[in-house]
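assembly run, all chains below
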Amino acid sequence: MKLSYYPGCTLRTQAKDLDKWGRLSLEKLGVQLEEIENWQCCGAVYPQATDEIAKKLSAIRALDAAKKNGGKLVTLCSACFNVLKRVNADMKEGGDVAKRANNYLVATGYLSGGDEYKGETEVIHYLEVLRDYVGWDKLKAAVVNPLKDMKLGAYYGCLLLRPNSVMRFDNPENPQILEDFIRAIGATPVSYALRNECCGNYVALKTPDAVKAQVDKIERNAEQAGATALVTACPSCRYNLKVNGNGRLEGVYITELLATALGIKE
Amino acid sequence: MQRIGVFVCWCGNNIAATVDVERVSEILSHEYGVVYSTNYQFMCSENGQQLIKTAIKEHNLTGIVVCSCSPRMHEATFRKTAEAAGLNPYMVEIANIREHCSWIHKDREEATAKAVILGRTAIAKLLLNTPLTAGEVGVTKRALVIGGGIAGIQTALDIAEAGYEVDIVEQRATIGGRMAQLDKTFPTLDCSACILTPKMVDCAQSEKIDILAYSEVEEVKGFVGNFTVKIRRKARYVDETKCTGCGACMNACPSKKGLNEFNMNLNTRPAIYIPFAQAIPNVAVIDPEQCLKLKTGKCGLCQRKCEVGAIDYTMQDTFIERNYGAIVVATGFRISDLKYFNEYGYADNKDVITSLELERLMNAAGPTGGTLLRPSDKKHPKVITFIQCVGSRDISGCGKPYCSKICCMYTAKHAMLIREKYPDTEVHVFYIDIRTPGKNYDEFYRRAVEQYGVDYIKGMVGKVYANGDKLMVQGSDLLNNEQITIESDLVVLAAAIEPEPSVRRIATMLSASIDTNNFLTEAHAKLRPVESPTAGVYLSGMCQGPKDIPETVSQASACAAKVIGLLAKDKLKSNPCVSHSDEMMCNGCGTCANVCPYGAITYIDKEFRLGGGKTETRRVASVNEAVCQGCGACTVACPSGAMDLKGFANKQIMAEVESICKR
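ok done. output:
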């Protein structure tokens, strides 16, 4: 099976591990991730400023490319997922933003009239591919190196889950998909209350103390529950756990663990 | 040949702003059969009605069409008007050009055109109307109250006081309801049980009131004045007539693991138990899920202990059938499920509790004997944080869109009582708005803030999580514009209230309408607030909407007044719009009796003359006009077209449809 794939810029620079092991693992599980052509940075959260269409154009181009290549677009980075899904929802809704963006894309010749982008593409997170296209049972069966001794805290952060009205990813207050993933690769999920709290990334430069306090709170909550590492799909979360964390709890990418469990990564 | 008058109402601007009433009355004046047509500002007013009466007499009208509001609103008014002018009241047709037209359209041209069509349709029907005469039916002088909380108790007491018999059907083993679980009541802080239990005793002692506890309504037949209700008396396994309520069985019972529902499951009770000390009837009941004898056949200790031989393990549910003139729904409320509100950690932390659980923790008859101890480690909490509007005023779809109305006041009560009893305790309250409309209510809340120093924080809580043996309450303080975290020992959630779920089943049985939140709908939100749109069905208490005790008691008494008004009548005018069967066409197939919800149709063998001196005996349908409610189900089901409804005959309906379709 082939699915269109949007890696995003961080996965090309800071988070190469997230990308590399993600592709290899899915390949082993029978899913080919096909990188769409000429993609650009999604712009992180900035496209959500409601009065600005220019910042959404990159996401729309990616979504439109996927529309013409299977109608589905997989992404791994939480921020890309958030942006793509929200911009897609804007386009589907067909309001002012959608009209202006399409007008621009038609006027500049990127799209032809009558071929406007109307939110047709389905944006899928990597975890959803594992759950819905591979299946937890098949994943379990493919595990050659179950991570038996690991007590892992699922760290969702904010971008995968919120705003729930658009993301519809999992129960925003009591999500389960990462826990299911952890179980599938043979490790033990540790439940802790702050797993859906924001790591504070957006104020990391402006008020680093606030971020330190936030990460510290999350880590202590996870440690109290017995976690020895935190699993994340978000480069920002991992960055903050690393830079602003207490150093005891390691932040690991879902794909690194997956690759290890599948025997691809040492 | 009919002489029809058309009266188009402006309803002030309600109709006239959107519909060109002048043009409607002008166009309709040219319709076949119409000899007079006019319009007026308020047709329902004294002057408007006089205008109709005069026109009927002057123009010798045989029927009238009033183009106005919904027939629910003023059909009865205009029928009376016509009757006063000497017309048969069933020669009146209403064209609803308000709710069905002016209120829902914006375009004046479109609305005017539609009003004309609706007027024509009513005229088409009226041309085929025939005068009808209402019959009379008797009234069973007994009322049924479903639910034995304070609402049901008050309604029953008031009806009994007027001299009528009342049955209270209560699904739990005792009457008393939610109010029995409360510790103190706002704004006077008097003990809930102390003011409730005398009323419970009054019910038990009243010769007019029959308490059917541990029972459920199973089936309702009939109509206003003449309901027949089947009631399931659930097996208590204890003979109510023998049990003295001594409690010896409870002490003997070896199974002690059943959760104590009365204490909001905060402690356990034996398998055989009396729900609480003042229960009425003061009779034990066996929980079949917990009873060893019923589950395994081994035990029987309670039976051996019982000196009066009241315990019977072979008891089965029984059914009784009774007749009532009126039915009151007083099914009450419960605390809504918090499963969609994981952010408050209710399921994960023992020390996150609901307000109703706190009531039990503060009550002298509760699991802690009235000493406030937190559930996890039985320690006295030093910092308590209340969170209001948990699931109320929620538009995310997880909770309820409405305000639960009682939470602001009971939270202030809790905060005040805790500060009074344990002055060393720090109390915080997160709120969105404080709503205290009611006599002495705002003064009460201010006392909590000013006199008792309760810390009110405007803002909502985003998360409650455990940190060691503390609960971290993370929320926003909107007035100080900051994010705060309060390290607490106990967190109390003012969870939204919702109607008791069994109300859905009951409403269906009664054909009483219910809104999207499962609250029963009133006949009129302002002017008939204690009646259901279904005749003979009345609403008391929380089943109609959130309300506190004073309001519940007022409504319960209002409801009783309405019931008494009905029961005081010896006869009710019956609806003449009933079914009848054309015996020449009926072939006795039995379809109509199968669909009749009221059991109004039977079959008789009738002899028909065929001519030439021959006769033939055929089975034909016969409608009991006193029982028929004119729903029309039989007329639709009848395969030969023999069934027809007076006042809504098949040919009248077809004439209406034709009139709408022809352009």
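The radius of gyration of chain A is 19 Å.

The CA atoms of residues 162 and 172 of chain A lie 7 Å apart.

not gonna interpret more than that til we talk
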